[in-house]
Structure formats: C-alpha cells, structure tokens
Amino acid sequence: MHYTMYELDQYRSSRAMSWFRRLCCRFHLRHCRRCRERLIRLSMDDILISDLRKSTQAMSVPENPGEYHALCGLFHEESGRRRSTL
Q1: pLDDT tens digit string along 26-74?
Q2: Are 5 and 38 in contact (CB under 8 A)?
C-alpha cells in the first residue's frame, strides 16, 4: 500500500493526521522510496509556488485580469508609437 499525495500532505501538517496514522506513515516512509519521493515532490511544489508568488509581487503584476489587460494595452500602444517615430 502506498500513501496518496493527499495523505502525504496531511502527514506534513501534523494537525491534519492522527498520531497513530502519522506513526504508521513515518514507518512506511522509512521503507518506501516511492512515497518518500512523493513527499519530496510536495515540498518542491511548495518552493515553486512560493517563488512564483515572490516573482509576481516583485513584478507588480495586478491580480485583476482587467487591469492586466489594460496594462498590456498601454505597453502595446507605447511600442507602436515608438516604431512610428523611427
């Protein structure tokens, strides 16, 4: 038996899984390479999501799609003006 990604995510947050199930999962992880790799993948996904959030904050990308499209339109218009003056 292998643990699902959902169960492994519960294992990572100690309050989401009972102490007995955590103990069983910990024992299983010691002997199951596949589940250990899945657990590592979950951690890597967390790092990726964190990096993406930091990047969007650094770039000041608006959360509202309408604002984003308006901003893109401004850049498109500005690049068109520059070309016409060359």
Answers
A1: 999 999 999 999 999 998 988 888 888 887 777 766 666 677 777 777 7
A2: yes
DSSP-H helix ranges across the chain = 5-12, 19-31, 33-59, 65-85
Domain residues for 30? 5-85
Tokens of 50: 């964190």
What tokens appear for 19 in the block?
């102490």
Both structure tokens of 64: 């509202």
Q: How many CA atoms lie within 13 A of 44 on its CB side?
A: 6
**Which of helix, strand or coil describes residue 3?**
coil
Q: How many domains does the chain have?
A: 1
